[in-house]
Amino acid sequence: MARAICLLSGGLDSATCLAVARREGFETYALSFDYGQRHRQELAAAERVAAHLGAHAHRVARIDLRVFGGSALTDEIEVPKHRSASEMDAGIPITYVPARNTIFLSFALAWAEVVEAETIFIGVNAVDYSGYPDCRPAFIQAFEQMANLATKTGVEGRTKLAVRTPLIELTKAEIIHLGLSAGVDFGLTHSCYDPAPNGKPCGQCDSCLLRAKGFAEAGVADPLVP
Fold first, then answer.
1. What is the pTM of this model?
2. For residues 97 and 70, what is the distance between their CA atoms, to the nearest angstrom?
3. What's the confidence (pLDDT) of residue 58?
4. Which of 49, 50, 80, 124 could make an S-S bridge to 135, C-beta 3.0–4.6 Å?
């Protein structure tokens, strides 16, 4: 059975990606990160999603991006709230974590080489997203090219790695429909950048607003909203 590394944050996009990989017949290896983010709810969500979708293995890599800061998710910077769609489109937001997807994909590449997986799934999106530069197709293509030059298995011709982005051209509503069709329980996911201590989503950050917009446009009730 072909193997795939699936980056899994615990959000609805990465959960859908994992479900798509499973539906396509991959033996899935879910990879999450404890990187010094503001809260740990997303790691608990990732654990729930990995178990629900039958990941062959789920690992949490521990790295500390608070060493560098520079983001509202890894520094003492206030998370923006109540932003309009035009404000979200105006530039790269302060919730962008410098080089995060480059770092995460590099870890995925290392695990892929060990288990001889030829595919990495990542739930980046270039439609309904927060303007992050490492969610663009050009970045993914460049990383894939680099990855095939950087590994022992690649140089020896034993693997040719592909970075799959099945959500990159979908709206959030389309992602939700895809996830439901692939068996995702969105009640297990977590999207909020700044949840309450009990894990309740704030409903006001960019991620919450994009999630709400997606469910509204999909005509589906968000199981996290009472």
1. 0.92
2. 7
3. 98
4. 124
Tell me the CA distances in angstroms from 129 to 26, 36, 169, one per residue in order.
27, 22, 11
Residue with tokens 């409903």: 203
User: DSSP of 179-220, one letter per residue?
Assistant: HHHTT--GGG----SS--TT----S-BHHHHHHHHHHHHHT-
Residue 51 identity: A
Question: How many other β-carbons are positioned within 10 Å of the β-carbon of residue 68?
Answer: 13
Predicted confidence (pLDDT) at residue 107 exceeds the cutoff of 80: yes
Residue written as tokens 């298995």?
153
The angle formed by the CA atoms of residues 123, 63 and 169, to the nearest 5 degrees, is 10
The yes-or-no verdict on residue 62 having pLDDT over 90 is yes
CA-based nearest residue to 56, from 14, 17, 5, 126? 5
Based on the number of CB atoms within 10 Å of its own CB, is 118 exposed (0-12), middle (13-18) or buried (19 or more)? middle
Rounded CA gap, 31 and 50, in Å? 9
Helix, strand, coil percentages (3-state) for the chain, rounded to 5, are: 40, 10, 45
DSSP 171: -
Q: Which domains does the chain have, with CATH numbers?
A: 3-218 (3.40.50.620)
Q: How far apart are CA 161 and CA 140, in angstroms?
A: 12
Distance CA 100, CA 106 (A): 10
